[in-house]
Amino acid sequence: MKLPAPLFEGTLLRRYKRFFTDIELADGSVVAAHTPNTGSMQQCAVPGHRVLISKAEDPKRKLKYTLELIRVGEYWVDTHTQRTNRLVEEALRNDWIAELKGYAVTPEFKIGSSRIDFLLEKESEKVLVEVKNVTLIRGVATACFPDAVTTRGQKHLRELLDARQQGYRAVIFFLVQRGEANEFSPADEIDPEYGRLLRDVVAGGVAGGVEALAYKTLITPKENRVHEQIPVVL
Please, which residues have CB within 8 angstroms of residue 219's CB and are 6 or more apart in sequence? Predict the structure, then answer.
């Protein structure tokens, strides 16, 4: 997926009020940029990190700039969570995810009182896919989710298991935005209940469990795309 262009380089000064960041540009001026991310962004929203921001031309926007990428160590990290599902949809439609090839794709599928990110259909088979954006690293190279306690994420796991027991194939898909990651595990030290639930729903029961997949992205200042699978360690 192509990123907005042009992008302007700057330095992150601070994040505040959840969706606001102050960015110092190369000429020394400081602008406020919107950050489309509700998580803690720990390891990413760190003062001094290099960032890339886009500028909107819409006169109705209060904040003209949007935070697009943050440089963490040797890699760019995409913290723009409104782009997450579009990245996965692109990969699904292009058959870049080996376990989910050849399906018709319907985003935002309503089941019961909830919406799951994707319904995939092929002949009589139906697959529900819920996507989570991952920007946290534990240790040297273990990607982790969540970066804050997530009751909503816990609810999604329960819904996926319920769907599995109704006859759907069900997948929790972790989109890992850290280039150094070589495996994925739940962040038990942050949200132990999420880790417990993830293990439980993957174990499943008589009907079988929810599948957990983790794929890493490949990010440059020009584009981001789903790149390669990494192991899920539970």
Answer: 69, 75, 76, 77, 78, 177, 179
Radius of gyration of the chain (CA): 18
**208-218: pLDDT as tens digits:** 799 999 999 99
For residue range 121-130, what is the model confidence (pLDDT) as tens digits?
Answer: 999 999 999 9
For residues 96 and 109, the answer to whether their CB atoms sit within 8 Å is no
Q: How far is CA 69 from CA 9, 115, 165, 217, 227, in A?
A: 10, 28, 39, 13, 17
Which residue has 């919107």 as its token pair? 34
Residue 144: phi and psi, rounded to 5, are: -135, 150
Domains of the chain: 7-78 (2.40.50.580), 81-230 (3.40.1350.60)
Give the E-state strand segments of 192-231 in sequence order: 211-219, 224-230
